[in-house]
Amino acid sequence: MSIRITRRGALFGASGLAFAAAACSSGPRRPEPEPQTGPFRHGVASGEPDQNSVVLWTAITDDAGGEYVFQLAADETFESVIFEEREERTYVTSNAISTFKTIATGLQPGTAYFYRMVFNGISSPVGRTKTLPVGAVPRFIMAVCSCSNYPAGYFNAYRELANTPDLDLVMHLGDYIYEYSADGYASDDAENMDRVVDPLHELNSYGDYARRHALYKTDPDLQAAHAAAPWLMIWDDHEVANDAWSTGAENHNEGEGEYSQRVYNAMLAYHDWNPTREPADQIGMTRIAEIGDLATLVVTESRHVARHQPMDFSTFPIADDADPDDPANQQAVAEWRATEINRDDRELLGTEQIGQIADAFGAAADKPWRLLGGQVVMGRIEAPNMIEALPGWLKFIVSKTDDLAWGYLQRSQFNIPLNLDAWDGYVAERERLYDAVRANGGDMIAFAGDSHTFWTNQLMDDEGRRIGYEFGTTSITSPSPFERIPAPGISFPDIIENGNRDVIRLNDRDKGFIRVTLTPDAMESDFVTVSTIKRRGYSAGSDSRWRVTRGANGLELDAI
Ligand SMILES: [Fe+2]
Questions:
Q1: Which of 22, 330, 356, 454 is 20–30 Å from 156 (CA)?
Q2: Domain ranges in the chain with CATH number 3.60.21.70
Q3: Within a 13 Å sphere around the CA of 81, how many CA atoms are in the beta-carbon half?
Q4: What is the DSSP string of 135-146?
Q5: What does the pLDDT read at residue 313?
Q6: CB 412 within 8 A of CB 504
Q7: How remote is the CA of residue 447 from the centroid of ligand 1, in Å?
Q8: How many whole angstroms from 89 Cα to the centroid of ligand 1?
């Protein structure tokens, strides 16, 4: 089934949403930087800069019409306004919330600007943005983040990200919102933290998704992160539904209606509430950011256009408790990998998108850095034999308390990938991507979200040739899957790093983001952590720092 989405082409326009403002919180627990009353309660945002323009966004609560003026200036006091867009509107009845976007044009490359909306003489908060540079670029600073789950905790990592000096770009790799109901995933502490989601039910209609976006945008730490720098955003699955593919999702059933309608609803709300340039079909979104002569960054769409249904273990060919030493069982699992998981026609990005990556990297073959922003982890990660690795007491507890985890532990005695929703479930296409990258300059640096853990991986093809390195960012708040198995004294990172050639570093605990500093000679990734997400107060730290340089035999990686 193909998804047909046709909708307005104009970027600038009030949505006219007919719903009440989201208002779950009983009030801030510390002085908030942004107003919670008045017309501007959702902050401002900018996004998808190129060398001469950038998208500006804001929302107005209780919009009864009047004069709307988007302004962008070289200075924070708006004495020298570079771009201004003025509009007057009259409504018969006021909108509960209207969202606004425009593209500020006529800007200089590599230049920081400030922007706001003035509505009937009232100014919104002021945001800082920046165009992409041209020519020689001595330094470019980027924050890479993903997986911000409102009920799971406070967005302290967004606050820390906003504090990054001289930030050029924020790359959000998806799970910007989550679709679950108030008693769904990672919501155990939500009531205590005043972070119960709105609406209370699972999202499905346009109004549902828009209300959830509106709730998120009331968060002061998210507002600060948007106001600090332009964002280059791409969705993962939870902007629609868990483990989404091109025609369905794990968290969608027939009773919830036509899936293509749900995708349409979700994407409409996503674009209304975020500073994105809107593709004609809403879902085709390969973004290419030319960072002067320094780098080319390609950001891919991997959920709604090409992706085949993720594999799961329902097709596992033998019983979970089958004897791992029986050659017949080993053979059955090997055949399952070859015929099911490694099937040649399984796609994640699709042929067209891989062609776009090849073209963009080919054109950037003379640049020091070719960067790929994806969603799911690309590195090859085998589940280590957990039955061998874990102590008897822990296995006993898991076997008695968690059927899902126990099945997984038992299957880990056979050679199986850690996560079939990631690139390890699309092995043949990963090789096709690696071939395309190798033919167009090679030496790729890939970034991933989705996993809620930090990763440093080397990317190796089937023949053991290194294609590049991968840095996976942890979540802003979403829980690590390893938290499912409480194991005092057990280091899952040690077990997984020791059992996998391609995994150099796994941090399975911390929340945070990656701060990337690019220069012509080196690329540094700092895994920034926050001490807690359960209170607003936090201290920032660093899990690890990595430097990539270019040596005689390609890229070289060092821990610093
Ligand atoms: Fe996530």
A1: 22
A2: 313-559
A3: 12
A4: S--S-EEEEEE-
A5: 84
A6: no
A7: 14
A8: 39
Q: Give distance in angstroms: CA of 422 to centre of ligand 1.
A: 12
486 alpha carbon to ligand 1 midpoint, in Å? 20
What are the DSSP E strand ranges found in 270-368?
A: 287-291, 295-299
- CA–centroid distance, 146 to ligand 1, in Å, is 7
What is the predicted pLDDT for the residue at 280?
A: 76
Q: Where are the alpha helices (DSSP H) in 149-205?
A: 156-162
CB 211 within 8 A of CB 218: no
List CB-based neighbours of ion ligand 1 within 5 Å: 147, 175, 478
CA of 415 to the centre of ligand 1 (A): 25
d(CA 264, ligand 1 centre) in Å: 21
Return all residues near 489 (Cβ < 8 A) that are at least 6 apart: none
Q: Note the CATH number of domain 313-559.
A: 3.60.21.70
Instruction: For the chain, state the CA radius of gyration.
Output: 23
CA separation, residue 77 to residues 43, 109, 116, 446 (Å): 18, 21, 11, 39
Cα(185) to centroid(ligand 1), Å? 11
Q: Is the CATH number of domain 44-280 2.40.10.500? A: no
Q: Which residue stretches of the chain have pLDDT < 50?
A: 1-32
Q: Considering the entire predicted model, what is its pTM?
A: 0.92
DSSP 196-255: --SSSSPP-SHHHHHHHHHHHHT-HHHHHHHHHS-EEE---STTTSTTEETTEETT--GG
- Per-residue pLDDT, 311: 87
Q: Which of 514, 534, 532 is nearest to 524 (CA)?
A: 514
CA of 209 to the centre of ligand 1 (A): 17
Q: Are 502 and 457 in contact (CB under 8 A)?
A: yes
Give residue 147 CA to ligand 1 midpoint distance, Å.
4
- C-alpha of residue 176 to centroid of ligand 1, in Å: 8
Give the Å distance between the CA of 177 and the centre of ligand 1.
9
Q: What is the pLDDT of residues 395-430, one digit of tens each?
A: 898 899 888 888 888 999 988 899 998 999 999 999
